[in-house]
Here is the input.
Amino acid sequence: MKYELYYWPSSQGRGEFVRLALEEAGADYIDIARRSAAGREAVARMLAARRSATPPFAPPILKAGNVVVSHAANILQFLGPRLRLAPKAEAGRLWVHGLQLTMTDFVKEVHDTHHPIATSRYYEEQKKEAKLYTREFLKIRAPKYLGYFEDVLRRNGGKHLAGRSLTYVDLSLFQIVTGMRYAFPKTMKKLEKDIPLSVKLRDAVAARPNIKAYLASPRRIDFNENGIFRNYPELEK
Ligand SMILES: N[C@@H](CCC(=O)N[C@@H](CS)C(=O)NCC(=O)O)C(=O)O
Here is the structure.
C-alpha cells in the first residue's frame, strides 16, 4: 500500500504523530506538500474538495487507495493494525486509541499556550494572555497529563504504554516529551525528574533504527515557531 500524507510543509505539527508511525514501520509514503509546489497545491485542493461527500476539515489527512482519513488519532487508529503498531484485540485497540485521544487533548492545550485567545490571530497579539495561560498550564496541566502517561507506563511494566511491544502511542509519547523539551526546557528539567519511565521510553524510541535514521534525515522538520511546540522563552519566565 502506498500512503499519501497531506499536511502543511513547514512544521512537524500534528502531522508528526503520523509521520513517526509511517517511518517506524518503513511504510511506503509520500509527504505530499513537502514534495513540490504542486504538492502544496494538492493539500489546498484536498481541503477545498467540498464537493466530496466526506470533506476533511483540517490536516493531517491520510489517503490510502480510496480511503481518506483525517484527525491524527483517527489516522493512527486506521494505520495501527496495518503497520503492526497496535494491539491485536479490540479492547487493546480501543485502549491505545483512548490514549491517543488524550494526547490530542494535550496537544490542543499546548497549542493554546501560544494561542489562548484566537487561533486566527498572531501570537504577538495575545502575548499577555499567553503568559497567564502558560503559567497555569505548566503548573497544573502539563504535570497532570505527563504524570498520567507515566502512571500508565508504570502500571504496564515500564517499557510500553500498552501491551508488551511497541505501539503508535509509544511513538506519540516520544514526540510529546521531545516537543515539551523544545518548548519549555526549564520546566521540563524539573518535570522530567517525576517521569523517569517516559524519559526512558523517549530515549528508547529515539534509538530505534528506523526512527534514528528518520530523525537524522531531511524528512524530519526541525522544531520551529510555526508548529505546536514553540519556544518562546518569555512564556517560561
Ligand atoms: N483534531 C485534529 C485537529 C486538526 C488541526 O487542528 N489541524 C491544524 C494543523 S495542526 C489545522 O490546520 N487547522 C486548520 C483550522 O483549524 O482551521 C487532529 O488531531 O488532527
